[in-house]
Structures are given as structure tokens and as C-alpha cells.
Amino acid sequence: MKTNRSELNMLEEALNYARQGYKVIPLCCPSRNGECGCGWDHKDKGVGKAPRTMHGLSDASSDPEQIREWWKLCSDANIGILTNGHVV
Question: In the chain, where do the E strands start and end?
């Protein structure tokens, strides 16, 4: 199976942040036409900035298994890092 290097890097980067103690969350990514790649309507968020989980920021985690599961479901997700209640 061929692995997309950029997708592997996103997972590895998310895991790296978690190892440093940060809680991460998968974020939407832009589609080729410049819209949000998830298909959801995020009027209040910029493209690629909305959490891709059911409960948004409250789902942020540093658990490696949870992070792997998220990126298995959406390998091209952007990475959000929860810091003092804000996502960067």
C-alpha cells in the first residue's frame, strides 16, 4: 500500500505535539475548490479551522490511540492544538 508522505507527517506531527503534553484535535482541511473539505457548513470558522469531531474543542486529546484513530478516519486533517482553552 502506497502511503502519502504528507498525510503520514500530519499524524506524526499530531503525535509529536501530544508527546509534548499538548491536547490536539483534527481540524477540517480545505478542498481543491477552496471550500471546507468536510462538507459541513462552518459559517463561523475559516476554511480548515473547524474541529472535525462531534464535540469540538472538548474532544481534544493527547492520547496516542485516539489521535491515530482520528487520523485514520481523516488522514489529511489539519492539526489544532488546545492551549488555555484556545485552538492554534
Answer: 23-27, 78-83, 86-87
Query: What does the DSSP 8-state code read for residue 61?
Result: B
Taking CB atoms within 8 Å and a gap of at least 24, the contacts of 12-21 are 13/79, 14/67, 14/70, 14/71, 14/79, 15/64, 15/67, 15/68, 17/62, 17/79, 17/81, 18/61, 18/62, 18/63, 18/64, 18/67, 21/62
**What residue segments make up the domains of the chain, in order of their start?**
5-87
Residue type, position 31, single letter: S
- List the chain pLDDT tens, one digit each, 88 residues: 344 545 558 999 999 999 999 999 999 877 777 666 666 666 656 666 788 888 888 999 999 999 999 999 888 888 999 887 666 5
Residues in the chain: 88
pTM: 0.76
